Amino acid sequence: MAPMGIRLSPLGMAVFCLLGVGVIYHLYAGILTFLLSSCVCRQRKKVDLRDLLAVSVEAAQLGGEEVKRVRKENTLNEKSKGETKEGAKELLTMGDLQSHRKMYNLIKNTFPEITVYSEESDSKPDSVSWSRNIPDGILKLEKGREVSADSITVWIDPLDATQEYTEKLVKYVTTMVCVALEGKPVIGYALWMYFLIFKKSSYNLNSPKVIVSRSHSGEVKNFLHSAFGNSTTIIPAGGAGYKVLSLLKMHSGQTEPIDEADVYIHITVIKKWDICAGAALLNALGGHMTTLKGENIDFSGTPLNEGGLVASVEVDHKNILAKLPNWDLSKH
Question: Are strands 22-26 and 184-191 parallel, antiparallel or unpaired?
Answer without folding.
Answer: parallel
